[in-house]
């Protein structure tokens, strides 16, 4: 049986409803619906006692973050399994949402990923967000003995996986025959709390991935292009205002072409270099991707946040006005992010 068309995801169930109106956008661009700000924080590492880890997760919740997020890697000293960490974080909190950002599609069959996430959505009372990507770190694949296929193959496999995942969250048995997966008469159980499914985040830096996100995701992650042929230290430079706008346009145009309303997309991004002055103290959260970057590129990049709390708040408001980005990761330093979250969360 040929694969069916992907289901059109609903708006993010647990995010605050977008308010009516449009924001200032570049000339020629379609209006962008203004969504309230949401913030995610990275989970602490497993280099501390489990009780302290849970305490730090609860602190993230107390500071007003909307979600806590975890990556998916094997190498580089990475210790956490995202599904287990998301489960423990959900159990340790009452409001905080848990986000895989992002699961590497090549590591998990979509049937198994659906089963785990559907269960977690039930047990958490509907606090799951699903991030899914094609995978970009070759070291992970090599260490696990997995083929690191060309981008077109990995993205094609991701597209099939997303279709299967979304259909399994539906009410009918799934039959699917594709290039990479075959599913026969499988009913996806249990039904999730969030209907029709937990919000799906698809992020990337390439046109191919961002167009896929525009066609099928609830949340579009705007990232630099990370690939074996790209210098990771060039990530911030690759997130210039012009390129950032182009990435947003790829996703929005693809949504329109797929018959979706691009205003229903929620856009997410990460700040790669944060320097916040709060009550006379400078707090910094800097990614390795920002090291050695030309200061002029840092000053102009939408992925950089420098200044007083007021200045940083103004920059994020302008970022949302120009690009529609409202879901933000402000780096790993909670002291740098907290005063901004206090000012903007839900606004």
The stretches of 5 or more residues where confidence is low (pLDDT under 50) are 1-29
The computed structural class is alpha/beta
Q: What's the gyration radius in Å?
A: 19 Å
Distinct helical segment count? 11
Distance between the termini: 47 Å
Order of helices and strands: EHEHEHEHHEEEHEHHEEEHEHEH
Helix content: 25-40%
Largest sheet: 8 strands, parallel, barrel
The largest sheet has its strands arranged as: 1-2-3-4-7-8-9-13
Query: What fraction of the residues are assigned to beta strands by DSSP?
Result: 15-25%
- Indicate the overall shape: globular
The number of strands is: 13
Please summarize what this structure is:
This protein has helices spanning 50-62, 82-92, 110-123, 138-144, 151-168, 207-216, 235-238, 241-257, 295-300, 309-323, 334-344; strands spanning 38-42, 67-70, 97-104, 128-133, 174-177, 182-186, 200-204, 219-222, 266-270, 273-278, 281-286, 304-308, 325-329. The protein is an alpha/beta fold. The strands form three sheets. An eight-stranded parallel beta barrel has the order 1-2-3-4-7-8-9-13, surrounded by eight helices.
